[in-house]
Design brief:
- This protein has helices at 38-44, 47-54, 59-62, 95-101, 120-133, 146-158, 173-181, 193-207, 217-233, 250-264, 284-290, 317-326, 336-348, 359-369, 391-398, 420-428, and strands at 7-11, 17-18, 32-36, 91-92, 105-110, 138-142, 161-167, 185-189, 210-211, 241-245, 273-279, 330-334, 378-383.
- With 430 residues, the protein is an alpha/beta fold.
- The protein has a domain at 91-117 and 217-398: Rossmann fold, CATH 3.40.50.1100.
- The relative contact order is 0.12.
- The structure holds pyridoxal-5'-phosphate (PLP) and zinc ion.
Length: 430
């Protein structure tokens, strides 16, 4: 079989097909899906092959993305692959998580353990590798912070020029620091993420930059490996539910696609149900799902402390809806109070995350309370980013300095005079 028969890009709106060359969206403006030829994939991959690769010393196969390369990009050229390597992220359990959610089985899969501190590396490694294969020179993205940090790192490693569009003054400092430090051209757009997204799409078309937001199908293909690796870690025994924070909806889209493919290939028997969790101040996907509306109405002024998911007009909503429908999933919303309290629980277990990540656990708890998730069902919550991305939100929570939030689990520092008795008193205080 010719390499080009292994994958084709197909528009989810008009059905037009493209060969995987310099194209990431359809002429009609629709999103493209990478259709992997599953007959071919099924003839080359197996559980035994993936197990064997787990012990490999080869850089590419050590990556939790490229270990599954036939299911990510069958056209990828090993010589063009830019990898750190990524993935191999931890799966954590803790008694406090059980008490907090009321579940008998809940695990956190920590995507903040990726090289630049978020799940974005899962999509960026295949995205930048494809840019290298296509001999692109300039790559671009709009970002609430983590995408820009990841793209800047991978593009700089590959010798490409990264150009990032960020909403001015609205991204967490840890992420801005990374984008600057990794040498990208940082363009601060006066406006919110949705304005930056619109501008980068237009600029990329006009100025010949290769767009690496999740409209690019290779980003979604890479992010599928969060699910593939998770199932592999669980010896291909699927949990009942996977909860995921939802902003631009790339992960929700990728998870459903991965699960459908794994099921078609016979790796899993049943698909877990996806619960996609939004912040209630940035909830267009929740509203669409709740109202069973035919199309998404953008939220004009999205607002949440979880800046990574402060998005009012998510580009991947059609693909995400397909994932929810395919897995009999649900969409839920949680308040900033619930997000920050769930984060304090995760942090207090020593696992730690940035605010948006905690939406998954907050959502799981809410869905258990409302009876949608049964207490005896098994749940995996995906944690999307590292705690050090946004230390300000963490410190302000514990100092009770976050407007509108009453921290249930505050752990403020104790100030003392420099005397032994005071140390004793401080240590013995509740
Ligand atoms: C930490 C974190 N969590 C969640 C999200 C939202 O992910 P998605 O756009 O795939 O819904 C983002 C996106 O920037 C993020 O950085
Ligand atoms: Zn089209």
């Amino acid at each position: 079989m010719d390499a080009s028969d292994r994958v084709v890009l197909k528009c989810i709106d008009c059905g037009r097909e493209y060969q995987p060359i310099d194209v990431y969206e359809c002429e009609c403006g629709g999103l493209l899906d990478a259709h992997i030829n599953l007959d071919w994939a099924g003839s080359v991959v197996s559980k035994a092959l993936f197990d064997k690769r787990l012990g490999s010393r080869e850089k590419i196969l050590r990556s939790g993305i490229w270990r599954y390369k036939e299911l990510v990009n069958p056209m990828a050229d090993d010589l063009c692959i830019i990898t750190r390597p990524e993935g191999n992220t931890g799966l954590y359990e803790n008694k406090r998580l059980l008490a907090y959610t009321g579940l008998s089985s809940v695990m956190l899969k920590h995507e903040g353990e990726n090289p630049t501190g978020s799940f974005k590396d899962r999509g960026m490694s295949p995205g930048v590798s494809e840019a290298v294969r296509l001999r692109m020179k300039v790559v671009a993205c709009a970002s609430t912070g983590n995408t820009s940090a990841s793209m800047a790192a991978y593009a700089s490693m590959a010798g490409l020029k990264p150009v990032v569009f960020i909403p001015e003054g609205k991204i967490a400092y840890g992420k801005l620091a990374q984008a600057l430090a990794y040498g990208s051209k940082v363009i601060q757009v006066r406006g919110n993420f949705d304005d930056a997204m619109k501008l980068v799409r237009e600029s990329s078309r006009k100025l010949g930059m290769y767009l690496l937001n999740s409209v690019n199908p290779w980003r979604i293909e890479g992010q599928k490996t969060i699910m593939i690796e998770l199932m592999h870690q669980l010896s291909w025994n699927q949990p009942d539910w996977v909860c995921v924070p939802a902003g631009n909806l790339g992960n929700t889209s990728a998870f459903g696609k991965a699960l459908e493919e794994l099921k078609a290939l016979g790796f899993i028997e049943k698909m877990p149900r996806i619960a996609s969790i939004q912040a209630d101040g940035a909830n267009p996907f929740y509203l669409l799902w709740k109202k069973k509306a035919g199309s998404l109405t953008a939220v004009e002024h999205p607002d949440t402390i979880a800046t990574a998911i402060k998005i009012g007009n998510p580009v991947s909503w059609k693909k995400a809806l397909r994932s929810i429908n395919a897995t009999n999933g649900v969409v839920e919303q949680v308040s900033d109070q619930e997000i920050m309290d769930a984060k304090a629980i995760i942090d207090g277990c020593g696992i730690c995350c940035e605010p948006a990540s905690a939406a998954s656990l907050a959502g799981a708890r809410k869905l258990v309370k409302s009876g949608v998730i049964k207490r005896d069902e098994s749940v995996v919550c995906v944690i999307t980013g590292n705690i050090l991305k946004d230390p300000e939100a963490t410190v302000k929570y514990h100092l009770s300095e976050l407007e509108g939030i009453t921290p249930k689990y505050a752990n403020a520092p104790t100030v003392i005079d420099s005397r032994l008795e005071e140390v004793e008193r401080a240590i013995n205080a509740p």
